[in-house]
Amino acid sequence: MRAAVTHARRTAVLGFGCVLVLLGGLIAGCGAGGSSASPGGGAAGGSAVVRLDDVAGASGVRGVRLDPPVRLPAITLTDTAGRPWTLPAATDGRLTLLFFGYTSCPDICPTTVADLAAALSLLTPAQRARVHVVVATTDPIRDTGPVLRHWLDQFDSSFVGLTGPADAITRLAGAAGVTFSTPTTAADGGIIVPHSSQVTAIGPDGVARVGYQAGTDVADYAHDLPLLLAGHS
C-alpha cells in the first residue's frame, strides 16, 4: 500500500486556529487544492503555531509546537470496535497521534497513514506500545465502522478509527485546528472531501502540544516520537 501512495505527497499548512505560521505550502485537501472550510462554514479557533526544526533553545522535536498548547474537548465519538471514545480517557496513558481523513481519499490520507505506520515500525516494542494512532473520518456517511476498519487494517491493525455524528466530528476537528468541507462528488463519481491534513500529537493528559504538516518524513516522525514519549515538546 505504501509504495502505491508515496508518490502522491502534497504540502499543507498546519491550520491550528486563527493565527497561522506559513510553512511553505497551502492548506491542502485530498483530491483538491486550495483552502477549505469546516462544514459549519468557518475556521475553528485555536492556537498559533511555531516552527522549531531543532533551532537553538528548542525542545529538539522536528514538528510544530503549539503555542499555547491546546486541550481538546471531551467529545465522544465511536471507535471501529463500537466503543465510545472520549479524550482524555481514550489516550489510556499513551501518546495519541490524531489524524482526520477519509477512506476514499486518493492521496494525502493513505500517504500520511502509511508514513505513520512506517515510523512506528522503527520504534522499540516498548515505545510502540505507548503510541496510539487514531484516524477520525471526515466522511462519516460513507465511512462506517467496518469500512474504516478494513481500510486501516491495510496499514496497521492496531490503528483506531473513529466515526460518529458529523457535528461531533466537526467540533473535535475544529478544536484541533482541522478544517474540512462537505463531501462532494467528482466528475468520475468519486467522493472528494477537501480538508487540512495535519497530524496532532496529544499527550496522555488530553493536551496537544505538537503537530505535523502533511508530507512530514517518516524519519522526522521516528525522530520525534521517543522525545514526545519522554515528555519533550
Automatic annotation (TrEMBL):
UniProt keyword annotations, A-Z: Copper, Disulfide bond, Metal-binding
Binding of Cu cation, residues: C105, C109, H195
Matches recorded under PROSITE patterns: PROKAR_LIPOPROTEIN
Keyword Membrane: no
Glycoprotein in keyword set: no
Family: Belongs to the SCO1/2 family.
Disulfides per UniProt: C105-C109
CDD domains: SCO
Organism, scientific name: Frankia canadensis
Alphabetical list of InterPro entries matching this protein: SCO1/SenC, Thioredoxin-like_sf
Name used for this protein in its record: Thioredoxin domain-containing protein
PANTHER family with a match to the protein in the record: ELECTRON TRANSPORT PROTIN SCO1/SENC FAMILY MEMBER (PTHR12151), LINALOOL DEHYDRATASE_ISOMERASE DOMAIN-CONTAINING PROTEIN (PTHR12151:SF25)
GO MF assignments: metal ion binding
